[in-house]
Prior knowledge:
Layout: H1 6-9, E1 24-25, H2 37-44, H3 49-53, H4 59-69, E2 76-79, H5 82-93, E3 99-104, H6 109-116, E4 120-125, H7 134-139, E5 145-151, H8 163-176, E6 179-183, H9 195-200, E7 204-209, E8 222-226, H10 228-237, H11 245-256, H12 260-281, E9 286-287, E10 293-296, H13 302-313, E11 315-316, E12 318-320, E13 329-333, H14 337-350
Parallel strand pairs: 1-11, 3-4, 3-5, 5-6, 6-7
Antiparallel strand pairs: 2-8, 7-8, 9-10, 10-13, 12-13
Amino acid sequence: MYYLDSRVENLYRIFDQNARKDYLRLDLNENPGGLPQEFIDDVLKNVTPQFVAQYPETLHFTEVLANHLGTDISHICLTNGSAEGIRYIIQAFTSVNGRIVGVVPSYFMFQVYSEMYGRNFVKVPYKEDLSMDVNDIIREMTDDTQLLILLNPNNPMGNVYSDDEFESIMKVARQKQITVLVDEAYHYFYPKTFIKYALTEDHVFITRTFSKLFSMAGCRLGYVVGWSDGVKMVQKMCTPHNTNAFAMMFAEKVLTTPGMLDSLITNFNGGRKYLVDSLDINGYRHKGEAGNFIFIEPKTDAQTIVDRMKAEKKILIKAYPNVGEFGNCLRVSIGEEKYMKQFMDALLEIDR
């Protein structure tokens, strides 16, 4: 008998298949410049016919990553982007109709996976001023809550949690036996991390990706950090050979090349400073103290600006509706200074 899961049939998804090759891409939080071409060429020298023909082996890179994080491989599970790890944590550590608490707006796949597997996703909304009160989160951490999902920094709002705020949340999570998942996809743009909890306590996970600062979104590589027994459960969910050999090769080279991470961070910080200073000088309100993205309150219609940017300037950005006191606004990915100058020149011409 033919069968189709009604949860999949009724799931709302948007798939963006637009061609973006010839545009300045500031719409998906990628690094618009990417890694240096000479770095790419140097890594590719190690690609042989055998390398391409063989299934990827993960042990060596997991050891490299563990050394970088100051831990051992029992605390790490490599995944095909951090989204795969998030999916498996939801599957393994919550039940059908199980209660999952998360802030909104946020990375939409948290809700997608929750709905896909019949979980009850409880939304904690931001304030009108785009701030998040941790007491609102704690209020939803009920005795029947199975999973709390936080982001540090959060996409798209860019807010972060202080040590005291996070410890207040963890105190309740321990008391009520709630598993905590902290997505740190934008780590390195904002250096504070709560990874120590995932390495020293049970029922805490950190997910990270190599798509953002590491500039490897096209390679699809991420990882889960957690207590050893929890990581084993995530590993059980993984398909065989789920990580990409090219991705691991590039990620290892970024991690082990002296000065490479520092260079990426320096270039980003220079671009962010230029953009923020330019917005301030020209009277634009903006929000997003962390991450590689920023909300901008335009002076004219946000969607019109997005459309004209694409048609006239070959620049891709996004419009967001009803963003608190900002109303309809722009969200722009941040890259190095030359790209931010290109964007600002276009904005000042169009938004008037």
